[in-house]
Amino acid sequence: MPISTIHRPIRLRNLLNSCSSIGLVVGVSLFGTAFAQQPVVDELAALKTSLYFHAPFDGGTDAKVAARDRQLYTAPNLKRESAEAGQHRSDVEIVAGDGQHGDALRFRGKDKQVLFYSGSNMNFRETDWQGTVSLWLRLTPDEDLKDGYSDPLQITDKAWNDASFFIDFDIDSPRTFRLGVFSEYKFWNPKDVKWEEWPVADRPMIHVPRPPLRRDRWTHVAWTFQGINAADGKPAKCQFYLDGKLQGTLERPLEFQWDLERTAIMLGLDYVGDLDELMIFDRALTEAEVARLTTFFNED
Prior knowledge:
Layout: H1 10-22, H2 38-50, E1 51-55, E2 65-66, E3 73-75, E4 84-85, E5 92-95, E6 104-107, E7 114-118, E8 129-138, H3 141-144, E9 150-159, E10 162-169, E11 177-182, H4 185-188, E12 205-208, E13 219-228, E14 236-242, E15 245-252, E16 264-269, E17 273-281, H5 287-293
Antiparallel strand pairs: 1-2, 1-17, 3-4, 3-7, 5-6, 6-17, 7-16, 8-13, 8-17, 9-10, 9-16, 10-11, 11-12, 13-14, 14-15
Helix pairs in contact: 1-2
């Protein structure tokens, strides 16, 4: 189904319908501010056109925007050899009216069961792939998380260190928040060096010590990527943002070879906290556009 025919988040859709008829936005508070300039209209239209997937968790777990499969699935474990449509973890719930906007998804404990969306919603490309992942988190990491690593989001068809994206909290306190962008294992680690022997600075990760996450406020998390599987072999570029502020940039050649039948967008791996408004765009957003997303749902 062409992306232009898929249902969009209602406020963005209504705003842009108004924009197309009058060419201006006056007194509309989608982002908490009234706008009256055509460049803003153009910026919102560009975001709408690029939105490929959106799971707002309002009243359920089905995505509202999806170029492929809208459903959330529950698998018995990380192998995902079988899966059942829907959310079936007893320690996970939709909390009404307590999201960044509307409802939110709450994880209350650790469980072997895995929640995931189809990786086909990542708009994977075998050549010159780019995109943006955006979501909101709410937790105090050092107080709320259980022992061990915690991945609010992990996307791969194989393993955490093999053609994968993930955001996670390290095991040491105070917890470091990290973005991992791993190529195919044999591409980034051809000599099969043990993980603990890799210098931290050489790992394909961006580290954020003492991240500004708290359980009394929502924090916007996003990363952009471009040039993965570059035809000319040039380095890819990945940028990591918290609340619209750039935390770091990773530049190196990146190679992903995904089997989309196996690729999964996995939520809440050993995570305790809230998660809301998962959005995936089919291009690398600009820094200004990422900043715009931080106020995307701030309506009175």
